[in-house]
Fold von Willebrand factor A domain containing 8.
Amino acid sequence: LYYLRLFTNLQLLLVNIPNKLPQYSNNNCFFSKIHTNCHFQLGVQLLQLAHSPPNTRGPPEQLLQLAHSLRNTSDPTAQSLASSLSTRQLLRICRRFSHYPEESVAHAVHKACLSRFLPSLAQGSLEKSLEKCSILETPGRDEHNHDYTCSVKDGVLTIGNISAPVYSPDEKIKVPDVLFYDNPQHLMVMEDMLKDFLLGEHMLLVGNQGVGKNKIVDRFLHLLNRPREYLQLHRDTTVQTLTLQPSVRDGIITYEDSPLVKAVKMGHILVIDEADKAPTNVTCILKALVESGEMILADGRRIISAETRPNSIIMHPDFRMVVLANRPGFPFLGNDFFGFFLPPAPRAELEMLKSYGPDVPDATLQKLVAAFGELRSMADQGTITYPYSTREVVNIVKHLQRFPNEGLANVVRNVFDFDSYNKNVREVLIEALHKHGIPIGAKPTSVNLAKEFPLPQVTMTGYWKMNQSGDVRRKLLCPTETRPIDVKGPVFLRVQSYPCNRQESRALSFTEEKSHWQIPLNEVNIICDTHRNVVYVATCNPVSLFSMKERGDTINYMDLYDVFPRTISGVWQPFVTIAVLGGPLEGQVVLQEEQVTYIHIHENTHNTAVKHDQPVSGISNWWSSKEQQGGYKMCTEFAHKNWLLFHKENGNKLEVLDVLEGRVHSISVPINLKSVFLVAEDRWLLLESDTNRKFLLTKPLQMAPGDSEVCQLHAIDEESVSKGYGVASAEVFVPHMVSCGQLPNENLSAALDQKIVSPNRIMADTGCYAQVVVGFPDLISENEVYSCKRPVDLSAMNSRSRSVAKRQNCISLLSANQVVRVLPPADVPLKEIYPKDVTPPMAAGYLEVTDLNSKKVRYIPVPRSMRVSPYTKWLSKVSETNVLLAPLGSGGVVTVDMGGYVRVWETGLDNLQRSLMEWRNMIGTEDGRPLQITIQRDSDLDVTAPKHGKVDPNNDPHVGGNQWAGGTGGRDTAGLGGKGGPYRLDAGHKVYQVSQAEKDAVPEEVKRAAREMGEKAFKERLREINMSDYDANSYERFSNAVRRQVQSLRIILDSLQAKGKERQWLKNQAVGDLDDAKIIDGLTGEKAIYKRRGELEPELGSPQQKPKRLRVLADVSGSMYRFNGVDGRLERSMEAVCMVMEALENYEHKFKYDVIGHSGDGYDIDLVSADKVPKNNKERLKVLKTMHAHSQFCMSGDFTLEATESSIRELSREEADEHFVVVLSDANLERYGIRPERFANVLTADPQVHAFAIFIGSLGNQAERLQKTLPAGRSFVAMDTKQIPQILQQIFTSTMLSSA
């Protein structure tokens, strides 16, 4: 009821004004103004009645502004949201703000609008409206940073910060008692519920089935000690059955009060389940009871909330209603009952699953949480239709707890068996499960570990002796100077986050590779370093930094292009090294460039970065010199203790940077340095540049500023074993790697095959797999050198110079007793690894794993990246291979290739054995899935020559023989399961398979003849459709690129619902013709027993009576061809059209589509006609060729507006369930003077036709800028074809609200 005083003597009473007034020809403007003013002024009046304290006056004003903007917008999607912010809803929100002013306005709006379940376009429209009204999202509560507890003490329940008295009921038997494991997220939900409960509000929980709605409500009532009445609705529920409950007593049917009436009388909590299944007229009755506190029963009684009337039921003050409903839409078919309830967050869900399965391994639980989390996300995006919930995960964990030997893969498969009948859905589900390491389809015997080769015997090859004569010792004292750091900064840098699409690598077989993911790189060179479970990757073209956790879901990116100095000539090729600090500087890294030698410390806190610049002494304006100077190197072995060592190649100074103390200690040495190895904190191994002679420098652990000449340099004499002690010098080797720690005693004993306890260091060079120096770096006695020599020195295996590369890619894993290095394929014995008939894989390099425990060496291929940087000369300076290596954990390594692929490997034998056992346990002891009965037998018959065979007109099954085509288990003819036939031919019969040994025994000439005949048949098939081999390969290139997207789009098409309104009988009406099916209901007092004709929205999930109409407007203008080499926009457009044509094949009953091109030649270039869509690959390829050729030879110009206007006008005249126009275009509209306002007006010209723009090409940020100026939800940016299925899903579901 609305009351408005317009003039002094005129008062107007408006009753039940709808959101959309009828369009009166003369008074449209008048009624529109009345409607707006009524909403606004009544809202102000009611909000003032809320008695909000002064500190909460801001939120009501913001809410009113938002509601007013939504009600007056021309966007139908935004208008549909206005009903969620009705005056009653605004009043309810403000009442809550008056008690809890710390809450977020944006969060309250999202809850009221139920944004979690809105289509993506409606979510975008809401976000845009919130931004216009300056309602910003504040950081949400983190259940892990907030101490959420639940306790009952002295009759008071406390959840979080909210307390309430515990009820003392009369009927304790009705208080629910349920098995429940508390977790922070559920406690956070119950805290919110308790707030509303104390305010006297009824509650609504909506979410996917199985997320725990009933469990949380029962737990909540159990804590409050409140009795519960339960009522479950369904689509046959009527108002009568809602209030009366039939029962049989002594053979007589009697009607007694339903749980609803009992709860109202007794003050119990009424839990109404499956509210979305009931007819809308039933839920409207419940809504009236909640809002007005009154309800008329079928027997004439009336529920009232206040004064007593005859034949009335007084509502008990303790009565509350809790309504539960599933999310709206397919596959949860019901009414449009909206609400909001989410499944637990991953960490909370993991804690809960641990309670249900305490004996299930944590790794298994983590895989389940990650996999089902992604499946829910895919359901929200429309990629799959069923949102797998926590209920399924809990049941899986319970099963594994009870039957631990059955295997995770078999148990999970039981959940997805129903969806396995749909091929597209099955492939999507299996891919998602494989991504998170659930090995569905794998066999316990599918173990593909690298082949092992025996190592040569470890022998003693020499001695190291420290020269400590008196004269030499005095000459090798090293002076030391100390100076403070000159810090520059800080400079705050932007940190960008990208999703990490991490893939488990052990889905179908067990290998050394654990997982892999890709970082967003474009033609850059990279170096990598790791720290614990964090992987850091630095790039040098341009200089930037990536950081990611091994099991994280986010990649952080920091662009440092403007921080490092740039050169005018452009010849500078930076080389960056990473050092990861520790202790109080945990999470900070130092980046050092060898020429500039600037130190950058980045602190990844609150998405900021701090820079401190400190040039090493002796460098100034190096870029003004024409000659390339020697670079500085940084030693990072003890970076975790916050000190670093810098030295210049061929220099004679060591710079020790103490990051924590802020000082630099400069040590002068009497030799020219080639390399430095920090073998201990106080002992460093130095190599002289010209002679490769070794020296050991000793220093105090702590250097004071006043200390000088405290460092001593000791020369190391290398003696040979064969010549005897002190007779002749041993062969001098140049180590590539020296460990900074020692092997454990058991590993040292295993490596040398003798019981020994001694200090030691492990080394590697080009001539040895590994070397162990026993006693080093002790100065007391000579050190014994044990070597495991290579048959051929690496430097002699390839003519390339090995001194050029700056990364040796060699590391030691001391706990695993291994040396791991990356070798190019030319340095690996491929002939010994792979059989003669097996072609080695295309590898970027091989991990050579030398295991000193087992005395074995393995070569693990690292897959070659699909993208390789064109800067090959620059790459050769970084590394000999396209792969860089770093240790990760105790028994693993991480590699990064030049294409940006990060791969995590397990090399330690103990870790591999443990992981293999866990992997086999996940598969289970048996597969248990006989998908096909295969009978193997030996035919004892020889093959002659391949042939097609006779065609049986009756299509009878033929087993064996060589006469009929389509037989099984035979020979020579086309069929299945046989041998010697030219090609496969499936006639639909049971397959009898000959053994693999018999197939292998077919003579080579018969195999060759069969192969030639198969190729000939394939070419004949191509000729039938007039398609050459080149054409087939060309089309496959486009088809393979979108195959995964076609599957996703078809799943989306399967879930589309009818939208067109139809005139039909409207039942459950209060007036109209008597419904014969409701006569009995009328005798019992039911009022809604009539029916009448009218237009009604189709039920959710009902089949379409008419196909939807889709027109794709493809941009084939000259700019698409011109800039295709820049961003691939033309190929992306062709892939999108290919995807639409393939996905809509055999969907003519759902979609009628055509493809129209527009360019400078016109706006109606017919590419695909609606009445003649392509039926085979040849016809689809012709469309793609036409697009490419037209964009190459057309005139310049743009007819995007004209094409869109014409298409909207044409489609509006056609009959269809819905009309869609999708404009595929680049964002190059400014060049032709097309303003975004004009384009926006064209897209929204006809409300009957839903028009959208997808920008697939952009120079710079053209597309983003254009998208911001267009109406919310009308434009999208897709720089990757993978995004288009989700965009189309958003487009097809955009009418869910606007058409209501």
